[in-house]
Amino acid sequence: MPASMARARKKSSPLTVSRPALLSKGGDEAFRGLIHDLIAYGHKLDACRDAFAAIVGISGVQYEILMLVSRAQGVPVGEVAARLHRSGAFITIEANRLAERGILEKGADPSDGRKVLLKSSAKGLALLERLAPFQVRVNDVLFESLDATRFRELRKLARELVASGDRAVAMLELLLHEAKADSSRHEAKAA
Fold first, then answer.
1. How far apart are CA 142 and CA 154, in angstroms?
2. Residues of the chain whose pLDDT is less than 70?
3. Co-location of 180 and 150 in the same domain
4. Mind giving me the DSSP string for 71-135?
5. 117-136: burial string, b at 16+ Cβ within 10 Å, e else
6. What is the pLDDT of residue 168?
7. Does 40 lie in the same domain as 133?
8. What is the pLDDT of residues 103-122, one digit of tens each?
9. Quick check: is 39 in a domain?
10. Which pick of 8, 12, 56, 77 has the fewest CB atoms within 10 Å?
11. Residue 165: which domain range?
12. Are residue 120 and residue 179 in the same domain, yes or no?
């Protein structure tokens, strides 16, 4: 075959992971596939969250707050923020919107008056009662491939991945700062 007709081999992309457990045959294709699958599933979860929220007339993040708070007798704003991986200020703004609509109730923590506790109101619980049949049908499909053992394993793995994700994001913030400083040094040299 003439050289002009030969297809140029694609230069392989650099590895995006170095841990041997995450490599397959020396490559990271399986790892990249997992990342793409997780992102795709995350988009599906976001779409379901937003649809559930729309059914009861609230935003996606307000739905998350309501679902978390509805499972307890009063949850401090800081705990809600930590569990949902959002800032306390953001949760306060969204909780205030829900309280204005009578969906949440806010009150002082009896053990620490500086903390604000959030809890579902009767109206909030009524919204969740109306929503539950939709959630059951959709969640049963979302997780239809899990039996009890796989569910427990996934739950444990998800908690571990979230904790690793927190550490990775903290590291990324440092690396981003380093990259910006390095870029500034290169621009100064070029000038």
1. 13
2. 1-11, 191
3. yes
4. TSS-EEHHHHHHHHT--HHHHHHHHHHHHHTTSEEEEEETTEEEEEEEEE-HHHHHHHHHHHHHH
5. bbbbbeebeebbeebeeeee
6. 96
7. yes
8. 999 998 888 878 889 999 99
9. yes
10. 8
11. 146-191
12. no
